[in-house]
Amino acid sequence: xxxxxxxxxxxxxxxxxxxxxxxxxxxxxxxxxxxxxxxxxxxxxxxxxxxxxxxxxxxxxxxxxxxxxxxxxxxxxxxxxxxxxxxxxxxxxxxxxxxxxxxxxxxxxxxxxxxxxxxxxxxxxxxxxxxxxxxxxxxxxxxxxxxxxxxxxxxxxxxxxxxxxxxxxxxxxxxxxxxxxxxxxxxxxxxxxxxxxxxxxxxxxxxxxxxxxxxxxxxxxxxxxxxxxxxxxxxxxxxxxxxxxxxxxxxxxxxxxxxxxxxxxxxxxxxxxxxxxxxxxxxxxxxxxxxxxxxxxxxxxxxxxxxxxxxxxxxxxxxxxxxxxxxxxxxxxxxxxxxxxxxxxxxxxxxxxxxxxxxxxxxxxxxxx
Length: 369
Hints:
The chain has helices spanning about 10-25, 50-55, 60-65, 90, 105-115, 160, 230-235, 245-250, 275-280, 290-305, 310-340, 345-365; strands at about 5-10, 30, 45, 70, 70-75, 80-85, 100, 120, 125-130, 135-140, 145, 150, 170-180, 190-195, 200-205, 210-215, 255-260, 265-270, 270-275. By secondary structure, the protein is α/β, with parallel strands linked by helices.
């Protein structure tokens, strides 16, 4: 059966969804509001379950030469003294390798897997559900009808708003700073330092570069800093370990607020939300891309199983994905709460129990989809 499918969004979730659909034998249209010249910056960390999903999508081979493999997570206090370590290679054994890499490189791998043209500079301005189909209006005034629309347009999803599935994402109270550093100290491990309601994470990402991800918890009315680099040096200037050398080499910093999306339903008629549009979380567990890849795998499987019955397929999709995405929401909030405990209480507890606590937060994701 030939289905007319539209994927809205050509970021990680949209390109992964398009790949999952192609693997299942479908040929979706893919549109993106931004121009083709938009290149994602910074880096990304992909735990083992992300690698497993990419393997199921047939995209593991082009990924192998890229980035750096991460075998161990090392947690330190703000002074750089050890708290605990997690053997990431053992945790994800038999599942997939964990990797830190350039986000732009990942985007390119996903683009090669789409197998068709992405229509850039193409916004969706309206979606109407008529007789079980989705009537989509684009920014240029054109209109097309689809059997299925996949909303993969991120935390501030237009498709989510147009179909009444939910409003704005809810702020988590964190400001995140991201940077790629060249010329910093030589590191082999994912290394995270916990401060007072703040954290600084750094990891090797290939090409003698380091990917840095730092965050601080703030009040809702706190504005984004006018000079993110100066703010990072202010907040983390007293940290020890590798941080001083990294801050000295740091040149550019991206700043963003984190938020989460929790919805009663991910679908309305023939419209389905995937990725951050459906279940965004704070990036604490590095599961945003992994959940999008898993979404893509399951989406392809359920549609391939019942292509003649889209409502049944979407019901099956949501039944399979909700428990897992809910687990990520819960574990993310749990880790953030732990991070924000006063260091005098938190650090001794983490030295005693941190390895077990943080390992268990990933256990539910080791199991197959």
